[in-house]
Amino acid sequence: MPGFEIFGEEEKKEIMDVLDTGVLFRYEFNDQRNGVFKVKEFEEKFAHYCGTSYGQAVTSGTAALKVALNALGIGPGDEVITQGFTFVATWEAIFEVGAIPVFTEVDTTLNMDPVDLKKKITSKTKCIIPVHMLGAQARIKEILAIATEHGIPVLEDTAQAAGGKIDGKHLGSFGKCGTFSFDSVKTMTTGEGGMVITDDLELWRAMSEYQDHGHDHEVNPGGRGGEGRRFVGFNYRMMEIQGAIGIAQLAKLDSMIAAQQKNKAKLKDAAGQIPGVTFRHLMDEKGDSATFFAFSLLDRDHCTKVNDSLKSDSFGAINFAENSWHFYPKWEHLLEGKT
Fold it and tell me: Who wins on pLDDT, 177 or 231?
C-alpha cells in the first residue's frame, strides 16, 4: 500500500500551513513563517517514532545514503560491504563517495548473509550496509556483533522498511545510523525524500552541515553564509512541502503497516497451496513491515509459470531473477564498468 493511496485532508492541512506562510525553504525567513518549520518538525517526529535522538531529512533515500557515508568519513580507497540483492542506489552511493562496494550473498532472509559477511571483511573495510530488503529484517543483531568485533560502523539501509521492527526496536536504529526513502511508491511517501536517523550528535551535526553546503545553522550576526564552514558540502535539502506531507504520512504509518500485514497474511494462505512453495524467513513476523510478499519455488520454470499467471490476473508480481534494478547479475553498468 503506497502512501499516495491514502492522501487526504491531513496532508492538505499540513501543506496549506506552508503555503499560507509563502515560505518553501526550510531555513531562515523567521519573520514570515509564523513559527512553521515543517521539515524540522518532521525530522523530530520521525526520529522520536524510531526511538532515536536525531533525524536529518534530505531529498531522497539515495541522498540519505551519500550524506550518511560522508558523515562517517568514508572515502577513496575504502571498502564498503553491502549485499548483492538491493536497489542500485545502495552501491551508487558508495561509488559517489569514492569507495569500493563489496557484495555478500543473501540467505533465507533475502538479506545479508552474516556467514559470507565474515569472509568479505578486510583491513580496508570501513563500513557495512545491510539492507532490510523488501521491507523485512536483516539479521541485524548478528551483523552488528560481527561489525563491533572488527570496529566497523553499520549503516542500515532501511529504504523499504520504515516502521519495521525486531523485538519492538525499530529497524534503522540498531547501527550507527539508518537511512530511509520516502519516494513516490514507498509505504509512507513525500513524493521524493529521505531521512537519516542516529543517536550520535556529532554524526548528525556533520550530516546537517553537509546536506546544506556546509552551513552550520548556528545563529550568527552575518546571517546565512556569514559563518565559517568545516568542510565542503552539497545541496540535499528537503523542501517544506515535503516535510509537511511527511508529518501527515508518518501519523498514518502504523495503520498502513497493519493493513499490509493483514493483506500479506491472505496472500500467504493462498500461496501455501502452490506445490513446493517455501516462504522467506522473517526474523520477527510481528515486526515485518509487510511491504512485499516473497516466496520461492522449486526451479526457474516453476517461478516463471507462477509469475506469468499472477501477472495475467493483474498482480504486481516479479521473478527476482528478472529484476534488473535490484539483482546483481543484471547490473550491467556496474559489471561492465560503464560511467
Answer: 177
